[in-house]
Specification:
Layout: H1 3-17, H2 26-39, H3 45-54, H4 58-69, H5 80-96, E1 102-107, H6 114-125, E2 134-141, H7 144-152, E3 154-156, H8 157-160, H9 166-172, E4 173-176, E5 179-182, H10 184-187, E6 190-194, E7 207-211, H11 221-234, E8 235-242, E9 256-258, E10 265-268, H12 270-278
Parallel strand pairs: 1-2, 1-7, 2-6, 7-8
Antiparallel strand pairs: 3-5, 4-5, 8-10, 9-10
Helix pairs in contact: 1-4, 2-4
Length: 279
């Protein structure tokens, strides 16, 4: 792939998703975009780029961006964040939200749904403590194709073997052919919506917990600052933000600070928290 073609595709992906592609990732473009070319009845990537230059369509641009931004996920990924949610955040939410008996969780860039469903299973296991509570889980992603997979809750043997405790597989899944489908009761706990983190998402409302893990690593620094700033606007004054293990707010924004003794969880800085609580 020549430099001009790479730059055209990289700019489209960056403008639409925030994902920054460097030349060493050219192999990803080639491997992921060949199926897009075939879907558009084009034989080669050269033909794909030519159509993008001369006869671009919204559908073609969308398919290119979705192919490049569909990232893998798995159940209870890195396990510690989910243990923290169960043992630290959930007891705190039960205490601080006791008067209203409700809280909201957002799984941003949710991919194929394993993160949101992992949280749903934890909450289902804690249903005795949460009887009478109204809990809302919103899961969003740029890719409409991956959201359809998430909503179906249908996973391969390989996918359910990655991080899912065997007792949860037995309790919350049923085998359908050579795949496993998660229980309808778990699926119904999650609302899936298409959303681009580069665009305004204020209509989602305020959340008590936001999971935005392993997303910022794909953005350049200005985009990270912008997205974190808007996440701060959607987080309750005493809410919690989860980032991935390789992500940080240090040197990027002053709106968040790490939660003491709980790596990967961030709170609004005191000044920002006071402003959010007052709103």
């Amino acid at each position: 792939m020549n430099v001009d073609d790479f730059n055209l595709l990289a700019k489209l992906v960056k403008d639409r998703s925030g994902l920054t592609l460097t030349r060493d990732k050219a192999y990803l473009l080639e491997s992921r975009l060949l199926p897009v070319a075939r879907k558009a009845n084009l034989r080669t990537l050269d033909e794909l780029v030519m159509q993008l230059r001369t006869r671009p369509t919204a559908a073609l641009s969308r398919d290119i961006v979705e192919a490049m931004t569909t990232n893998e996920s798995f159940f209870f990924r890195d396990i510690k964040p989910f243990d923290q949610f169960r043992t630290v955040l959930l007891p705190a939410l039960i205490q601080t939200r006791a008067a209203r008996r409700s809280f909201r969780i957002w799984s941003a860039a949710c991919s194929s749904g394993q993160e949101a469903y992992s949280l749903s299973m934890i909450l289902k296991e804690e249903r005795a403590r949460l009887a009478g509570w109204n809990i809302e889980i919103i899961a969003t992603d740029l890719s409409t194709e991956i959201l359809a997979k998430a909503q179906a809750g249908l996973y391969t043997q390989f996918e359910v073997q990655r991080g899912l405790p065997i007792q949860y597989l037995v309790k919350y899944f049923k085998q359908t052919g050579d795949k496993w489908q998660i229980d309808a009761g778990i699926r119904d706990m999650v609302q899936y919506r298409p959303l681009n983190l580069l665009e305004d998402f204020s209509s989602l409302g305020t959340f008590d917990v936001i999971f935005c893990r392993n997303v910022l690593i794909y953005f350049d620094q200005p985009t990270k600052t912008q997205v974190l700033g808007r996440l701060a606007q959607q987080l309750a004054g005493d809410g919690y933000l989860y980032l991935g293990g390789a992500e940080t707010v240090v040197g990027i924004t002053d709106r968040f600070q790490p939660m003491q003794d709980n790596r990967g969880i961030y709170r609004l800085t005191e000044q920002r928290a006071a402003l959010r609580t007052a709103i």
